[in-house]
Design goal:
60s Ribosomal Protein L30, Chain: A; elongated; single chain; Alpha/beta knot
């Protein structure tokens, strides 16, 4: 059973994993370098543990100790119990869910290793998506609708950043992912694994998703770009086919998270 330790000093070094959680730039640099990420809320903490992520510590307000009793019983990492006001001073925001856990990251597979996994037929390739909320929502849709792996461009946001994890409701733990190498040849590893590259675009010349010809065993990689700029020219030129979501009433585009959900459903239902 984990040790339960009451802490009343916001500068206690044992709470260092939780300091400045609202400082995006700091956390973006610090968390991958130190091999940690923050899980927020009871459900997300449980899902992280079920996915095999090791706990470094927990930070709880007193009323959550009983709720998380079974997790504490099974844990070996320390549990720090703090007053809600102190938690806010440490983290930089009101922790309304009352429970945080610092978890250890796992080593990422290479893109080639991920693509070689048996049964991987429908994957998402994400380029330049830097909004953590959008990224988490895309992962949640991917998990729900049958995407089997995600490959991220080098400049995509961190799926294990706190907001991504929270927005995905822990779905980031269920889909394996890897980073692509930087540069114009990033997609070669996908082509070498015999995936057909599909670029999602609003261009009228693109094939409507409902008219895409594919079989369940086809290996399809759907490429999604940032909401502001879409896919880069390099990725568009690398595509085997452009695909689009037919729209009405003069609407020419959707939020990238909404477009991803529609596209995943169409692709995985094919």
């Amino acid at each position: 059973m984990a040790d339960i330790i009451t802490v009343d000093d916001p500068d206690d070094p044992r709470l260092s994993d939780y300091t400045g959680l609202t400082d995006v730039e700091l956390r973006r640099r610090r968390e991958p370098a130190e091999g940690l990420f923050i899980a927020e809320g009871e459900k997300v903490i449980r899902r992280a543990g079920q996915a095999g992520y090791a706990m470094r510590s927990m930070l709880l307000s007193a009323k959550w100790v009983e709720v998380m009793g079974d997790v504490i019983e099974a844990a070996t990492a320390p549990v720090y119990v703090v007053d809600p006001a102190l938690a806010e001073r440490v983290t930089g925001y009101h922790v309304h869910r009352g429970a945080l856990a610092s978890m250890a990251r796992k080593p990422l597979p290479t893109a080639a290793e991920l693509l070689a996994r048996p049964g991987t037929r429908r994957i998402a390739l994400l380029e330049g998506i830097v909004d953590h909320g959008n990224l988490g929502t895309i992962y949640r849709s991917a998990a729900a609708l049958g995407i089997e792996a995600v490959l991220l461009s080098a400049d995509c946001a961190d799926p294990l950043y706190r907001r991504s994890v929270k927005t995905s409701m822990g779905a980031v733990f269920t889909i394996p992912y890897a980073r692509l190498t930087p540069g114009r040849h990033a997609l070669e590893v996908v082509r070498e694994a015999d995936f057909k590259l599909l670029a999602l675009t609003p261009d009228e010349k693109a094939t409507a998703l409902g008219e895409l010809r594919s079989e369940p065993d086809d290996q399809l990689a759907l490429m999604l770009g940032s909401e502001g700029h879409g896919l880069s020219q390099d990725w568009m030129c690398a595509a085997d086919e452009w695909v689009r979501i037919p729209m009405a009433h003069g609407v020419d585009s959707l939020n990238i998270a909404a477009a991803a959900a529609i596209s995943f459903y169409s692709l995985c239902d094919a």
